Amino acid sequence: MYKTIPIILFCLFVSVNLFASDYVSHRLDGSSLQLTTTDGKVQLTALHSKAIEVLHQSDKAQLPSFAKAENIEIYSGLIELADSGEFLELSTPDLRVVIKKKPLTLSFYREQQLLVEEEIGYFSHRTTQGFRFKLTKDEQLMGGGERVLGMNRRGHRLPLYNRAHYGYGTESQQMNFSIPAVMSDKKYTLLFDNSAKGWMDLGKTQADILQFEATGGRSAYIVFSGETYPELLKSYIDVTGKQPLPPRWALGNHASRFGYRDQKQVLETIKLYRQLDIPVDSIILDLYWFGADVKGHMGNLDWDKATFPEPIKMINTLKELGVNTVLITEPFILTSSKRWQEAVDHDALGTTLDGSSPYKFDFFFGNTGLVDVFSASGQQWFGNVYKELAKQGVSGVWGDLGEPEVHPSDMLHKVAEANDMIATGDEVHNVYGHQWAKLVQSSLNELNPNQRPFMIMRSGFAGSQRYGMLPWTGDVSRSWDGLKPQVELSLQMGLLGMAYTHSDLGGFAGGDSFDKEMYIRWLQFGVFQPIYRPHAQDNIAPEPVFHDEETIRIIREYIKLRYRLLPYNYSLAYQNSTEGLPFMRPMLFADETNPKWLNMDDQFLWGESFLVKPVTDPGLRSIDVTLPSGNWFDYWTDRIYKGGQVIGYPLELETIPVLVKGGSIIPSVAAAESTASYSSESLQLDFYYDPSVTSSSFVMYEDDGVSASCLETGAYEKLHFESQVLENKPNAFEFKLRSEKGSDGYAGLPNKRLISLVIHNWSSQKNRVSLKHQNGNPAAKIDTEYDSAKRQLIIQFPWTMKEQIIRVAPMK
């Protein structure tokens, strides 16, 4: 079968070329250019100054755009159109499309640089449609969503059909979350806005051709441009939607397993976390909350009172301990479940081809139907389930099997957003999880409009980030091979908006015995993943509290580090929600000019300041770390490494390589048992002094951690910290602190803070330190201490939130 693919595709391409369309006429209407061709209508729309959509229209009804944000503001700035006879040229200030009239093909430019051009562009042949683009010889391509293929996906043919890969390790062509988009090292992103089953061929069949093909669906793509990778990513999320801020507790530690069998086990697990002084913010219940057995109960969507006799009391007890309750739900309603007839009566399920009855089929858990998350009736019924649970005090949703894991191709769905257009399973399969997330978000927002939802999902589509989805990387093997690809998976997803992609820490599937070293290494790495959630099959406990004293001791300190870094991490969440920047950033963000960084899939940047290299092999005494230019501090020892080289980093079981860029400013607080007691009234600022870095800054974002409207209403505070080396004064600098409040306050807003400024790499024991207001008047009294062993100068003072300047200089 494999050997016949190129021949089939060759025949397809030849037949398509015979029907290439030609330009007939055009009309410019605002930000849209309407082309009439010999083969129909083509519409080009400037969605953004850096993003242009191309839609091939036809008489046949098409599904709506799922990738674009519903409330997107279409670009209304400068648009220019030129007609030279042979070509049309449509331009915004940042992106230009050259339209060749015969045959009709489009080429996209950033100023004079050609980004990408169609080969034959759109094609349609019997049951296949899509687009073809040219690739340049050395072009590298990232994207496609969750795959384990290496960072450069050039040369692969990627299936576009969300499908679980149980127990995967170091290679996977197809997983839970496929995104029909690529990001090129030429700094453009190409997104195919089509939800149907298909393929994305990145130079596999023909080395110089990028081809998207689908069995049906929407005939559209969007080209994004940016001069830098962060700028390119921002243009993408400006169109596909910004991730809302999660509740602050989402960044804490989550107890999770498959699964907690009864109410007593839940409460005793959390009690053990508290006894062992390990912070925890939620407990996540797998399918036993609605049934005592794995099979036969899916779709009950209500408590099994035999094992959870007093669920509301349990939820309230946990809440008093600062712990939230999260429940798994699946979209499958078994015919044996308590709610089967209710779902049928409410017309909530996908139907057979005649539309008269629910589609029933067998899969692992039993005979079942599937909730139609696209229909108005399905949305209302399923949404009411989530409202019922939220009213009981349930704080979060875990959406599992949402590919869907089994989805008959001939099942019918009624798409409410398209005037009840009927779509088959294959046409909407890839947006099922996407639509499910939208349903959960809208239902919970309707019940509690100013409360941020918590929603873990394992499947979605381009733009799913706008619904607050927190994806995980599926049922990974509990092994070193399962740990190895987790950096690649999170980096690839973050480049296409899904910045909260994380793994089941410790691995999920299999494992005959406890691999202590692998478990510790995975949970150490997890501190620098967006969501910290050990989770696994319970033949081996995934929670650290059930392991030996050494494991508990090591992991306790890492989880506490996670809580100490909450001000830094929460600020990364703010950056993501406003700019699209991921928490985990590829090394190419450190040096965009060097192509070697693109292929690096075993280390990453955590925000702008940290460099992290997970340990993914057993028994290592040292590991190579590749450093970008500049100076880098070992986070654990303060040893300084000169950048631009590969270092051999010494390893102990207690540490993994974590380095901090010279000049960085890292805010932190004391670790608490949960984020319910979070406070930044006592704030530590670690300043990694590097005289070669003349200036640096960090913006720390704060709000109440709960309200959904903080950014819109101004109920926040931004703390600006800046350092500046003083000219003509060796080893002297100024450090500025400034508070910028939004238009409104928020609950817990401190009116003063106790600041502890820790200056690393400071060699002078005697120093002149002054603290003044911006106007030059002296500020509060300060206390200083010098730690000669660590070469750290500690300066403590109360900050009344007025702009202040600390000047530090060694005494002669």
At the first level of CATH, what is the class of the domain at 2-240? Answer: Mainly Beta
**What percent of residues adopt helix (DSSP H or I)?**
10-25%
Shape: globular
Q: What name does CATH use for the topology of the domain at 2-240?
A: Immunoglobulin-like
Give the tally of β-strands: 46
CATH hierarchy: architecture of the domain at 2-240: Sandwich
CATH superfamily of the domain at 2-240: glycosyl hydrolase (family 31)
Structural class from helices and strands? alpha+beta
Per DSSP, the total helix count is 14
% residues in beta strands: 25-35%
Rg estimate, integer Å: 27 Å
Low-confidence stretches: 1-18
Q: Please state how the strands of the largest beta sheet are arranged side by side.
A: 5-6-7-8-9-10-16-15-12
Mean pLDDT: 95
Distance between the termini: 80 Å
Largest sheet: 9 strands, antiparallel
Describe the structure.
Helix content is 18%, strand content 31%. By secondary structure, it is α+β, with helices and mostly antiparallel strands. Among the domains are: 2-240, glycosyl hydrolase (family 31) (Immunoglobulin-like), CATH 2.60.40.1760; 585-660, Golgi alpha-mannosidase II (Immunoglobulin-like), CATH 2.60.40; 679-810, Immunoglobulin-like, CATH 2.60.40. Strand 8 and strand 9 (113-125) form a beta hairpin. Helix 6 (376-391) crosses helix 8 and helix 11 packs parallel to helix 12. Residues 1-18 have low confidence and may be disordered.
